[in-house]
Amino acid sequence: MNNAVPSSASRKVTLNDVARLAGVSVATASKALNGRKQVRAETRARVVEAAEQLSFSPNELARSLLADRTGTVGLLTNDLEGRFSIPILMGAEDAFGADSVAVFLCDARGDAIREKHHVHALLSRRVDGLIVVGSRTDPRPSLGRELPVPVVYAYAPSEDPDDLSIVVDNVGAGRSAVDHLVSTGRSRIAHISGDPTYGASQERAQGALAALADHGLELVGEARFGSWTESWGRAAASMLLGQHPELDAILCGSDQVARGVMDALREHGRTVPDDVAVMGFDNWEIFTSGARPALTSVDMNFERLGRVAAQRLFAAIDGEPRSGVEALDTRVVIRGSTVPG
Amino acid sequence: MNNAVPSSASRKVTLNDVARLAGVSVATASKALNGRKQVRAETRARVVEAAEQLSFSPNELARSLLADRTGTVGLLTNDLEGRFSIPILMGAEDAFGADSVAVFLCDARGDAIREKHHVHALLSRRVDGLIVVGSRTDPRPSLGRELPVPVVYAYAPSEDPDDLSIVVDNVGAGRSAVDHLVSTGRSRIAHISGDPTYGASQERAQGALAALADHGLELVGEARFGSWTESWGRAAASMLLGQHPELDAILCGSDQVARGVMDALREHGRTVPDDVAVMGFDNWEIFTSGARPALTSVDMNFERLGRVAAQRLFAAIDGEPRSGVEALDTRVVIRGSTVPG
DNA sequence: GAAAGTGCCGAAAAGGCTTTCTGTGACCGT
DNA sequence: ACGGTCACAGAAAGCCTTTTCGGCACTTTC
Fold first, then answer.
1. How far is the CA of B62 from the C1' of C11 (A)?
2. What are phi and psi of A214, to 5 degrees?
3. Which residue, of A268, B20, B58, B245, has the fewest CB within 10 Å?
4. Residue B1 above 50 pLDDT?
5. pLDDT over threshold 70, residue B265
C-alpha cells in the first residue's frame, strides 16, 4: 500500500538484467545459458557468471508461451482423501522426474460439474496432459476425444475404448491370492468381500473362484458381500464360522474386512494362521502391520500404476498415443496371517 | 512426424481467431470478453458468440505473464502418503475457490535437497505463494526470508519467528481431551502416548497434565511413550492394567494407539466405556469407526488448518503479511468409547 | 457553427523469453 | 587484393493477452 519496496525480496531479475550485467544482448544471453552453439566460450562464461550473481531463474511462463509446452500435467482425482490418488501421484512424480515436470492436483470430489470446471482450468493453464484417477475400479465416463492434450485414465478405466486406461488386474489379484493360500496347504477357503456394487469386489471374487477351480477346489459356502468395513468383516466371519466351522482360510475383500474377520476369529477361539489363514487386499500398511499376526495382503502396486500412467502420458505427449485398457499385475505380500513364524 | 494434423483435436484457438471471426480487433475482443466498458453491446455479443463458437479459452500463460500473477500456489509437503497434507490441501483448495487458483503439489519426502529443487521449480513457474506442510509438529527450518513470494507454514511451524506458521494447538487438544473425560465422570486417568521424540506427544501430554491439575487430579502412573502403533498400545495397556487396575480411563496419544489399547482391555476382560473409557487423537475415521465401540477422538481440524493457511497466504499475497505462530483449536468428537450408548 | 465532450474501436506497447536472420570482422584461398 | 567462409553477436519477430492511448464519428453546448 504505502511504499513500493518489493517485500524486501529479490524482485524479478530478468534475462535483460543478466545481459546488461554481462555486457551482451538478451539474444546472446539466452543462447549462452541454453547451451546454444553460437557463443564464444569466454562470452558464455561471462553470462553464466552474471546469471549466478543475480541468481537468475528464467520465467517459465514466457518460455512456455513460446515453446507451447509447459512441462506441466494435471492430475484429476476423485479420491483425494482416499487410498489411490496419493500413491499414484507419487509414482507419477517419480516418473516425471521432478526436474522437468510439475503436477497440478485437482479433486473433483465425484462431481461431474466440478470435474468439467477443473479440466477447463487445467487446459487454460496449458497443461501438456492429464491423468484422471477414479475412486473405484468401475469404468467412468470419458472426458471426450476432443481435448487438445492427451489423457490417461488410471485405476478407473474410461468407458471409451479409444482412450488409454491403466488399471489394476483385480481378477489376477483374486487368482494369486487363492494360489498363495493353496500353496500354504489350505483347501477349505471362504471368501468375505466388500461392497458388491464395486467392480473390484466382483473381479477379485471371480479370480478367486477361477483359481479354486484350477486347483480342483470349491469355495466354502458362498462368497459374501457387504461393505468395506471392519464391522462387516466381524459380522460375516461370525456367521460363516457358525455355518462352516471346517474352513481353514478366509480370503477377505480388503484389509479392513480382514481386520474384522481376524477379530471375530479370535473371539471364536480360532488361531491365525495355524487354524485359519487370513488374507486381505490392498496391502494398506496401517492395517496390515497393526493386525495380530501381521496380515498377508495383495499389494495393488499403486505407485507403479502411477509411474506407468505417467510414462504413457509422456509417450502420448511425444506423439506415441495408445489406447485400450492396460491391466497391471499385483503382488502378494506374505506375512504372519498365512504362514507361521 | 508425418503430417500436421493436430491430433484430431481443436488446436489452439487464440483471441486473434475470435477477433477475426467477429470482425473486430483483438483489443476489442479482449475488452468484450472481459467485460470492459468501452464496447458496444452489439459488438460484445458478436465477440462472445464467436468465442463460444470456437470454444475459445484464454491462454492463462500469456495473461499471467502480463499480470505478473499466475493464480497458482505451490503446496510443498513432506508427508504425501500421510495424514496431514491431504486434508490441508483440500482445505486450501476450498479456500482458494477453485475458480481462480490452482495448486501445484510437490513432495519433498523429507529431503532438503529435493525441497530446494521443488521451491526453485515452483518459483520459476511463478507461483504466487507457497504453503509448506511438515510431516510432524516440530519446528522445521525456514525456507528463508529472501523468497520473492509469501510463504505460510502449516502443521509444522517454521523455526524463524518472522515467518507465519499455522499449527494445531496440541496442548489445548490434550486439555480438552482430559476435560471431556472428567466431564463423563472419570477421575483415574492414565495416558499412553506415542513416539516421545514428537513434539505432538509431549504437548498433548503436557496439556493433559495441566487440565488434570486444574481439576485437582493426577495422572494414574506415569505418561507412557513408545511408538504410534497398535502394538505399542496393546503392550503398554497390558502393563498398565497390571500396575494400576483401578484406572477408569486411558487417554491415548493417537487413534492407532487407542485401537491397541482397546484390544488389550478386551483381553483383560475390561469393558469400554462402562469400565474404562478410551479416547485417542487425530480422529482418523478409518480407525475410529472400526473400533468397538466407536472411538472418541480429538479432531485436529486439518481442513480448517488448510483453509486458514490458504487465507493467510492470500492475505499475504495481497499485501497483508503476518508473522508468528497461529495455533488453531481442536474439537472433541464424542463416540461410544467414552459415553455409553 | 466552432469548441468541447462522448462513445466506440483499433494500433501499439508491454511482459520475458527463444529463434531466425542479418551483420561484422577475421581469416582463408587464389 | 578480393570474393568467400566462418565464428560470433545483435536486432527483431514472435508467442498471446491486456491496457493505454489516439482517432474517428457523432452529439451537445453556447
1. 20
2. -55, -35
3. B245
4. no
5. yes
